[in-house]
Amino acid sequence: MLCFSADQYTCLEIFAKTKEGDKGSVGVRKSPDGTLFTQPAGKCHAAWLKFSLEKGQRYEVVLENAAPVYCYLSGNENILEEGVRFLEFQDQDIVSYSKENLNRFFDTPYREQYHFQAYKNWMNDPNGLCWFQGYYHMFYQMNPASQGWDNMHWGHAVSRDLIHWTYLPVALAPQPELDDYPEFLGGAFSGSALVEGDQVSLFITRHFSPTHERTKMEYQTRVTSGDLLHFSPEETVLRVKPSYEISQDFRDPKVFVENGLYQMVVGSGISGGAAMLLFHSRDQKNWVYDGPVVQEADPNIGGCFECPDLFYLDGKTVAVGCAWKLVLPDGRRQTEWYYIGERKDGGELCVESKRIYDFGTNFYAIQSFEHENRRIAIGWICDNYEEHVFAENGAYGSMGLPRELHVKGGRLYQKPVEEVYSLLGETVLEENGKREISCTVPGNSYWAKLSLSRPGDFSILLGEEEDRSIHLVCRNGVTELKTKGVRSEAIGFTSDVEKVTEIEIFVDRRLVEVYLNDGEGAGTKLFYHHSKEGQFAARFDEDILENAQVRLVNSAW
């Protein structure tokens, strides 16, 4: 029997899909002889079912031609601190994972130990980042049903320090009608949060499109909340594109306040080129089009921007946009660009500098927010080249370390927030002045910092397994993350930092984050390691190493 105890929880939330045919159901019965309450499972996609519980009672889950794919207990009084309790169905038993023992669930070579990730299955863009009533809130795109992309939900987590996160109930679901049309996909796409006193407005893109056609419908909606646990009915606030030149891509609203008006920047394209569109409003409901704040003329970047951001920082305006482009036979290339300059009368950005945000190949969809005079950004670490290892209870995607942003000399500097360093643990290597250094790292979650007396050529091994490897390499002043023996081997971007004298590296099982010259450049790359033992080895062509240190990084779970 599939039994569990409600303990302090008052709700069972279960995502379930019909196994065969058109009918399946999930039932919950209070033990020993309580009434059975049933709800239909989803036909085409997993349905989100909720059952009320009595604290301290035992219950049995009854499945009729239905497969549960994601399940947790919620409704506890201290949910912001304790979070939900996840339930895993194993044969005729239910195993639970709460905040205290999630580390056992996550401790595999294929999951990060100090980067945020979904409890399991698919995750992409960060959404609705904000500080509200004592907590950092992060919503995120998720598919609870599998490790592949499908109809989008909004997951939700909170943290007091940006490092230790607590999972909360799923916040938003796809449109109900999608379950009746298997040939259509969509759901709650990306968006942002606007905090005003004791209320938060969440702005969301709703997406609806045929599976195998280019046509799509995208429009912007809004919900409000006083606690970010309960939400108002959703209302449409921007449905119609302002001109025929604007592409069908019309999504990912980022909303902020400027000069007494609400401002919204939306990702789109104009006449085949990527663009960020600017709107304003006095009431968050009626929006007036102002024009493109950035319009990209380079066709190689792609036809639309996604996940746009726009903010004022250190005396300059910064616009950030993601662009993807199919480049055969390499597949989908995704890049993130930032633009720095001045805005004309609050509208179009006069660009003074333009650069790639991250010189790795696996970083995308950053969103930023401001709290206590810090501009903090979080981005999605994605697998563009289908290297993901499908492990049981695995997770596709994770978030990069939260980065604090600054503008210096026409460049966007980005460093991990100071809270990250509270996780640093035992030192496993410290060397001075050598041309070659190396060590193995138990757990394969570590931090390394190298200081150089002057720029020079080097090669730093950050992962190796059989004929597969990942290195940080500098040759003739060009620095890049290079992989060998993997599908993305031929794909790479180079850093535009010309003189590297300081290198900071974070390795976390299947990913690498690199920061050059105290944030002058950053690069992120995936490398799947089938062992929990890590490698670090550095070789310098000249006597340029002043100091190198490698330390373990403790799990955030």
Q: Supply the number of helical segments.
A: 2
N/C terminus separation: 30 Å
How much strand? over 45%
Instruction: Describe the global form.
Output: globular
Largest sheet: 6 strands, antiparallel
- Low-pLDDT stretches are none
Do you know the CATH topology of one domain?
Answer: Jelly Rolls
Classified by CATH, the class of one domain is Mainly Beta
Short description:
By secondary structure, the protein is an all-beta fold. The protein has a six-stranded antiparallel β-sheet, with no helix packed on it.
Give structural notes.
By secondary structure, the protein is mainly β. Among the domains are: 2-97, Jelly Rolls (Sandwich); 121-239, Tachylectin-2, Chain A (5 Propeller), CATH 2.115.10.20; 424-553, Exo-inulinase, domain 1 (Jelly Rolls, Sandwich). Helix content is 2%, strand content 58%. It has 2 helices and 42 strands. The strands form 9 sheets. Strands 32-42-34-38-39-40 form a 6-stranded antiparallel beta sheet, with no helix packed on it. The protein has a 5-stranded antiparallel beta sheet with strand order 5-2-7-8-9, with no helix packed on it. The radius of gyration is 24 Å and the shape is globular. The model has no long low-confidence stretch (mean pLDDT 94).
